[in-house]
Amino acid sequence: MNNNYLEELNQVQREAVECTDGPVMIVAGAGSGKTRVLTYRVAHLIKKGIDPFHILSLTFTNKAAREMKDRIGKIVSKGEARNLWMGTFHSVFARILRTEAARLGYPTNFTIYDTDDSKSLIRTILKEQGIDEKIYKPSIVLSRISSAKNNLLSAQVYLQNEEAMNEDKLSGKPKIGLIYDIYHKRCFRAGAMDFDDLLFNTNVLLRDFADLLNKYQDKFRYIMVDEYQDTNFSQYVIVKQLAAKFQNICVVGDDAQSIYGFRGANIQNILSFEKDYPDLHTFKLEQNYRSTQNIVNVANTVIKNNQDQLQKNVWTENPAGDLIYLLKAHTDNEEGQIVARNIYDLKIDKMANNRDFAILYRTNAQSRSMEEALRKKGIEYRIFGGLSFYQRKEIKDLLGYYRLAINPSDEEAFKRIVNFPTRGIGDTSIEKILIAARDNDISLFTACENITELNLAINSGTVQKIQDFVTMIQSFSALLPVQNAYDLGDHIAKTSGLLHELHIDKTPEGVSRYENVLELLNGLKEFSDGALPPAIDLNENKLEFQDTNETNKELEENTEESLPMRTLDQFMQDIALLTDADKKENNEDVDRVSLMTIHASKGLEFPYLFIVGVEENLFPNPMSLLSRADLEEERRLFYVAITRAEKRATITYSSSRYRWGTLTSSEPSRFIDEIDSKFIEYGNSAARGEFEEGSNPQYLVNKSSTNKKIEQKQKFETVPPRKNLVKASTANAGPIDNTNLKSLQVGMTVKHERFGTGKVVQLEGGFPNTKATVVFNEAGQKQLLLKFAKLEIIES
DNA sequence: GTGTAATGCTATTGG
DNA sequence: AGCATTACAC
After folding, report:
1. Residues A467-514: pLDDT tens digits?
2. A275 near A305, Cβ under 8 Å?
3. Which of the nucleotides lies closest to A387 (Cα–C1')?
4. CB-CB contact of A33 with A283 (8 Å)
């Protein structure tokens, strides 16, 4: 036990830790010991006697949560720390949603759709609706839906929201509201939530069920939110609702580091926190412990160019240190070589290790030239982000089988694996299944289960293949509660033919794919053996309160024998929420140079830092030049980048680089101009020449004219109003009562949700598999399964 | 229905 | 340049 933790804090940090009750805002400058404050604050709460069950701490990554838990465990006790609720918004509320899923008509084992799943579903909908994919690009449609959800606009509300509909009309995409509506219904039918739904549906729960709001308000009496500047409206409302009763809400953030506006983060959440909680205690952590004076000064001078910010003065007692080192290259490949050479030299000069270095870039695509150069120099590296392990095709394929076994309604999993490895169920059959599923409002899998009753125009051989597929998946499902994660996962990999399919491919890529699948199975093995959860240890949390620490101690000692079996569905629960940072091997102390985007570097620090590709048309990204707000976010991004450095920061740019396969020329970023030249060491003569006064008048004129354009715009630009909280609509209703349809007879007039009214011309098959042929006034003749179709008898 | 060749698109940032 | 979707031959 460590009782001296308070002595490891400075005055302000200590006050922030000890101010445990009521609303608190901690404005934490870069490198000001924020993590330490958060950690000790939680520990302090527990020491004061607050039950860890009542503490909720929302972090930006799951890795951060795990590390913090470990550190807290060292101050209090491991058993107590284990009972904390700590994790990202998405993982914490996914967990709660699984518990409360029934309230929303969702199954407990709902699937979490990742971005690829969402786009694929949108593509399917576009095809069905005959909407041009060129105009309605899935990524654009999805981002529109996403921002609607993040502003708590349900599909129904969206369709009635004049502002939203007008925006879509003006952008030439008036059907987005319609697509949103269908998308939402399809997700519901598939028992799936996308990332935004996890937050949206949490809001629905807390809004529509007073008992639940009460329950979680009582449970989470102390709430802390890290990186508050990056929360969106949906997250904001969740926090506000949960904290409404006890008001013990502590948010930590730095407006200067708000870099997620593109996914709905609202910097206003932190800028106007005071208005929400008038009796707020504010603490400003301004002393930087991380970086040299030069680095702090450069960061300060650059960020000063932004208008929107809270007053603060970040300073440090650290030595002045090296100047910012500026290097110019002529191509992106040369840039890589220069960086690799500098790392090589610095390692010798400073006796540094690979792990002391990081290379940061604006876009993932820039990693390649860096990788190549490092490889040639024999410097080991690791890449964060980009294609993560779980996004690889072979992994997604196998996970597709797991997903379908756990949730047979999962449409995206179905489409992915129904014919992979190929088993003779081709596009035309799937097309027919899709239509039948839509007409009867059932999932694709349910349609397959009833493939004979639906009697679609599919030849009998294929019908048999579909039935075999159904039987196979059902046999997997049946094993879920019986076998542990590894045994079943391995069984599925073999029985499905997937492992075999990969094994016969002897190309280097094929071998690598096979090995990746083995690695996944390996992970399953470790999970089953109880070595570690997939990444998130929320699994340990219980929603029910436990009496005292006695119970916990018991739990701790009670290992091996009494441990319940770890099953495949448990393993799969949080898979979609894992990021690269959560991967096990990235936590180990491997001695490698880190490569990542600036976004991914948030919260990290490195002694020797390289920021590469600091060029106009790349950083700031051209997409962000249209408004002052976007440009300021790019500048904050630069601020985040530079403040990752502890001892030395090197900035590089290139005068040309390959983009889309062709060489394009580029010039240094305006952000370099914004650094006072007294802080810069021009590392090579090329760079020095570029910035000599008047050396390149044309280039300077260009840049100032760009700036002017932006300034003009900002005059007319008003601060965008916070989107009003339009009441979100309740999630879809439950099943329709079809029992009265037993009395349905030929000649009756019926009404269908989509096809309108029509006359029954034929009935075949006994209840409950009765199939009706209906001639609709508008939609023509359709065949519908009574047990699924929402038919209403209008006239006998 | 399946496999291969040609075409076309993409690259902000991420849970 | 690399990947995904499409077109076409079998």
Report:
1. 999 999 999 999 999 999 999 999 999 999 999 988 888 888 888 889
2. no
3. B14
4. no
Nucleotide nearest to A119 (CA to C1'): C4
Taking the CA atoms of residue A85, residue A88, residue A89 and residue A95 in that order, the dihedral angle to the nearest 10 degrees is -60
Which is higher by pLDDT, A532 or A157?
Answer: A157
Beta bridge partners of A249: A223
Residues A625 and A702 sit within 8 Å (Cβ to Cβ): no
Residues 486-525 of A with CB under 7 A from strand B: none
Tell me which DSSP letter residue A232 carries: B
Proximity of residue A344 CB to strand C below 7 A:
no
How confident is the model over A745-771, as pLDDT tens digits?
A: 899 999 988 888 999 998 888 777 888
* Residue A629 backbone zone (phi > 0: left; psi -120 to 50: alpha; other: beta): alpha
* CA–CA separation, A492 and A495 (whole Å): 5
Tell me the CA–C1' distance in angstroms for A181 and B6.
37
A508 CB and strand C closer than 7 A: no
Contacts of A408 (CB under 8 A, 6+ apart): A414, A443, A445, A446, A473, A474, A477
Start-to-end CA distance of chain A, whole Å, equals 78
3-state helix, strand, coil split of chain A in percent (to 5) is 50, 15, 35
Is strand B within 7 Å of residue A419 (CB)?
yes
The reply to whether A621 has its C-beta less than 7 Å from any atom of strand B is yes
Q: What is the pLDDT of residues A240-260, one digit of tens each?
A: 999 999 999 999 999 999 999
Tell me the two tokens of residue A646: 């502890």
**Total residue count of chain A as it appears in this document:** 796
Whether nucleic acid strand C comes within 7 Å of the CB of A660, the answer is yes
A694 touches strand C (CB under 7 A): no
Q: Residue A248 in contact with residue A286, Cβ under 8 Å?
A: no
Which residues of chain A (232-271) touch nucleic strand B at CB < 7 A?
Answer: 259, 262-263
CB atoms within 10 A of CB A569: 19
* A716 CB-to-strand C distance under 7 Å: no
Q: Write the DSSP symbol of residue A304.
A: T
Residues of A catalogued as catalytic: 34-35, 226-227, 257, 644
Q: Which nucleotide has the shortest C1'-to-CA distance from A458? A: B1
